[in-house]
Specification:
The chain has about 210 residues and is mainly alpha-helical. Helices cover about 80% and strands about 0% of the residues. The longest helix has about 35 residues.
Length: about 210
Amino acid sequence: MGLLRFLVNNHTEVLELTGEHLWMVGISTLLAATIGIPLGVLLTRRPALNRPILGSANVMQTIPSLALFGLLMPMPWIGARADRLAILALTLYALLPIIRNTHAGITGVDPAVVEAGRGMGMTDRQLLLQVQLPLALSVIIAGVRVATVISVGVATIAAAIGAGGLGEYIFRGLAMVNNRLILAGAVPAAALALLADFMLGTLERAIRRRQ
């Protein structure tokens, strides 16, 4: 009851921090998809790039979030604004599942279907846009789903550099040894992650049924 009363009494601030959280997650996931999907496609065309590209994305996943914020802070323009820094870091964290799932989805398309397209005179571009990407879409969405859930969690750490979001309550609660404040940030963040997972999972299943 104490947590619910706190959220109701501070609903304006809660909504503001939730909006900041959604902004960081939404922009970073969109950027990661814009970069990751073409890279995943590139890996299917240039297998020699698999190790360097996937290796680099894997390395990004292993760097602790606070350490990554610190490494990116000296960058010109990016480091000058906490929100830009947070969005860049979240984008880097979200790349791996999107690249990997795009690659897996396209390479997983039935070779017989691809050969049938070639037999109809389709170019590589037409095969990609009209056959492979549509058939791989549910797998790609699954990667975006994982990336989004990861970003919702990591975005709480962005409050440590002043980027806002629901992590503000968590860090404030830790400083004051106040469990209610910690939960005021953790519970809505968990709810956002579950909601994003449910919505993208529903989209993924709908696409799979249509295929």
